[in-house]
Every structure is written in C-alpha cells, then in structure tokens.
Amino acid sequence: DPCRNFHCKRGKVCHVDKQGKPSCICQDPAACPSTKDYEHVCGTDNKTYDGTCQLFGTKCQLEGTKMGRQLHLDYMGSCKYIPHCTDYEVDQFPLRMRDWLKNILMQYYKRDLDTSGFLTEKQRSKVKKIYQNNKRLVAGNHAVELLLHDFEKNYHIYVYPVHWQFHQLDQHPVDRLLTHSELAPLRASLVPMEHCITRFFQECDGDQDKLIALKEWCHCFGIKE
C-alpha cells in the first residue's frame, strides 16, 4: 500500500493516483466517521463540528482563503456561551492554574507509586520533594486569598510544576518557544471550565510575536528566576 508510510498533516488524507503515486488531498468532512456527543468540538467560527476530522477537513478545503486561515480548534465540546473574562478574573487565574498544575503532578506521582510510566526518573525525584512536603496545600477548592498566601509562603513548591507544563507543551519543535498549535491541547481542553485561559495566553505574549518564550511563561505565573 503506497499510503502505508505516507504521512499527511491534519485535515488531509493520502490518495493514490492512476500511476500508483501517493499524494495528500483534503479530507472530505462528510466522509469523517460518526462521533459521540462528547467528541464534538467548537471551531473559532463559533460552529460545532462533529469532531476534529470534520473541523480540519473543512479548514483544508478553505485553504488559501481568509476564512481558512482564521479557522482553528477553539475548544473541546459543543459551542456554548463563554463569558467575558474580567480584569479581576485574569489576575486571579495564575493562582488557580499554578495550584492545578501542582495537583496534576501529585496525581501522576501517586499513580507512579503503583504503576510507573507517567513521569521520568528525574521528574519523579523533583515531584517527590513536593509530595513529601508536609506544608503542601492539598487539592481542594481553595479561596483566592489562601492560594496567594500559600504561593508567597511556599514559593519553591510551585516553580517546578510551571516549568514542567511548559516543557510538556514545547514539543513541535523543542525550541523553548510555545506556538499557537503547541498551546492548543491545553487551551482547548480548559476553555469550557476556565474562560480566562485565552486572554491569559494572549497577555503572556509580552512582545506580541505570537510565541510564548519560557521567560514570558514564567513571568505570567509569577516565577521570578
């Protein structure tokens, strides 16, 4: 099969011509497999698509047009009303996000105690120090004042989770810069629950070059080094 090892980007599928030569053509959105409701996604055109196959197939067919350039995956789930993010809310956002990242690492560490594989050995040794810290704030729906107090008091606990998330996202390529597409997996999954995440990422990009450097990322989360 000429298509077996022939890679096409999202929204395109491999097609073999009469001479047996493979090439990439746009995925027909109508030919995408049917999806469950929870697999629906919302595009930046505020339209619900049956899944990422349909969204990226549509984007491919619009290639070269303004609409095609502007169409991206906005968030997971059907389109719904996303409230406006106020200045007060965007100021509080890093407090909750830092706490959330720390708690994710705690969950990974606990799972690794039973079945290893979530964290590397180096990551595990760093997370172990946070996990064993008896002053650590346990997971819960804490008041903003408590999160702020804990960050100021136990600052060192929050540094590694912020760095860890940056390096988890920085994959294509690994260049210490986060692009729109590298941020998308985190952003798209959080928008329905955290409506300030889009504005937060926009404001993280201090020099407005459409890339978030490690220094900009850390600054957004209040990490000094």
UniProtKB/TrEMBL annotation:
GO terms for molecular function: calcium ion binding; collagen binding; extracellular matrix binding. It is found in: Secreted, Extracellular space, Extracellular matrix. Keywords: Calcium, Disulfide bond, Extracellular matrix, Glycoprotein, Metal-binding, Secreted, Signal. SMART domains: FOLN, KAZAL. It comes from Aptenodytes patagonicus. This is SPARC-like protein 1. Transmembrane segments: none annotated. InterPro entries: EF-hand-dom_pair (IPR011992), EF_Hand_1_Ca_BS (IPR018247), Fol_N (IPR003645), Follistatin/Osteonectin_EGF (IPR015369), Kazal_dom (IPR002350), Kazal_dom_sf (IPR036058), Osteonectin_CS (IPR001999), SPARC/Testican_Ca-bd-dom (IPR019577). The keyword Secreted applies. Its main location: secreted. The gene is SPARCL1. The keyword Secreted applies. One of its GO terms (cellular component) is extracellular space. Residues 25-81 form the Kazal-like domain. Belongs to the SPARC family.
